[in-house]
Amino acid sequence: MLQVHVIRENKLQTIQALQKKNFPQAEQVVEQVLGLDQQRKETQAQLDQHLAESNALAKSIGALMKEGKKEEAEKQKSRTAELKTLAKDLGDSLSQLEEQLQKLLYTIPNTPHSSVPVGKSAEDNEVVTQWGTVPSLPENAQAHWDLIKQYDIIDFDLGVKISGAGFPVYKGKGARLQRALINFFLDEAQKAGYYEVQPPIVVNEASGYATGQLPDKEGQMYHATADDLYLIPTAEVPITNIYRDVILTEKDLPIKNVGYTPCFRREAGSWGAHVRGLNRLHQFDKVEIVQIQQPEKSYAALEEMSSYVQGLLQKLELPYRVLRLCGGDMGFTSALTYDMEVYSAAQQRWLEVSSVSNFETYQANRLKLRMKSEDKKTQLLHTLNGSALALPRIVAALLENNQREDGIFLPKVLHPYLGFEKI
RNA sequence: GGAGAGGUGGGUGAGUGGCUGAAACCAACAGUUUGCUAAACUGUCGUACGGGUUAUUCUGUACCGGGGGUUCGAAUCCCCCCCUCUCCGCCA
């Protein structure tokens, strides 16, 4: 979440930035935050004064008792009772104010970076680069939801029987392709300097809050209520939370982690056209990269992550484009996001396969992830993450773009992982 | 699921009502010594929110798992909750 002192010191910029993100009533909310903070400060100052007096009295009473001056001690006791009541009231309003402020701050999204284009929807995103050539497919080219049936490699009906819609069963070469992609992505990340971790795929409430899924996306996560645990929507959550309540030193940085996990999303209310087949699932596999960086280096890191993801797509020989998301299309917690989309020739549309974001201090502030610098000051760090990559749409594009009369020919780079070349 | 033990600063760990924001040791950092390394010695060494000065320094409050209570005063006593560990049971 945003830091109050930053809002206070950059009030106008904050309001404008929030407006760019299409946050309604930015000005009123900012005013409300500053007002609450002001009240909070005043209340605390008063409370502190009362407590200071109480503490002083307690000491002097103790001293008087030791000296046997009981009467004087009793006199002072009456004042402490008074102070106690006052302090109780002040303490109550202080915690109320703090709670209100906290709740309000949770509703405010991150402010976008200056390079973020103004806009309301996906239409307004800016194409940064485009790579590769769109393959020309035969006339009878099929979409992946037909191909998977023809080759019997992914079975949605079976998934419905076992779990429900959006939980496909991968079979034979389909299952093998999943495993190959995961291993390929993990190996590549390791070569690029990422440290592999395998985190839990359920998380507690505190973790959900720290990376911003809660309370913003409460209804989008599967919630195991008996134990109050959430199924992760992305490995970002457990991996970033490794660094919750941590103070790092300069030499620990940068931190570059990679992890593979299944991801679970309820996708409540988002089903409809364009989400057939692998385009949208409740459970899917993803390899995620996470970086923790010093503030002045985070944007260089974002570019590095973007090039890294593009490198993967090039190795997979998939035509792609990179978008800089506009203010209205960005995630709640992000300051700058690049989306990578691959072109699916059979569906004749772009499919998002990765999203690489810099969160600046937004997550770090919730995580309490800080760095102690040489001058002994602690400051919040920047967190970044990106998919590298999410499997389903990669699979969709691989199947669709590489279909020929005599089978589906997978890219060379996967052959050693697959143990076969075509489906 | 049953029984027991325990949660203190980066770590180990002392601390049963005021002298404890917290011993000691380890780690870390800085310096001295040393041909280098090591060792030794000296010093520094929690976080948050405020106030005064802003270079440093000074200062108030809170925090010993969380919340509540007793008391003039709580890490320490009482209550509730959460979590962790060990043993047994069950199971991969």
Automatic annotation (TrEMBL):
Domain Aminoacyl-transfer RNA synthetases class-II family profile: 176-411
Keywords: Aminoacyl-tRNA synthetase, ATP-binding, Coiled coil, Cytoplasm, Ligase, Nucleotide-binding, Protein biosynthesis
Annotated metabolic or biological route of this protein: Aminoacyl-tRNA biosynthesis; selenocysteinyl-tRNA(Sec) biosynthesis; L-seryl-tRNA(Sec) from L-serine and tRNA(Sec): step 1/1
Residue ranges the record marks as coiled coil: 80-107
EC number, as in UniProt: 6.1.1.11
Protein family membership: Belongs to the class-II aminoacyl-tRNA synthetase family. Type-1 seryl-tRNA synthetase subfamily.
Pfam families, alphabetized: Seryl_tRNA_N, tRNA-synt_2b
The encoding gene: serS
Recorded catalytic activity of this chain's protein: tRNA(Ser) + L-serine + ATP = L-seryl-tRNA(Ser) + AMP + diphosphate + H(+); tRNA(Sec) + L-serine + ATP = L-seryl-tRNA(Sec) + AMP + diphosphate + H(+)
Organism: Shiella aurantiaca
Protein name: Serine--tRNA ligase
One GO molecular-function entry: serine-tRNA ligase activity
Entry-linked PROSITE patterns: AA_TRNA_LIGASE_II
Location in the cell: Cytoplasm
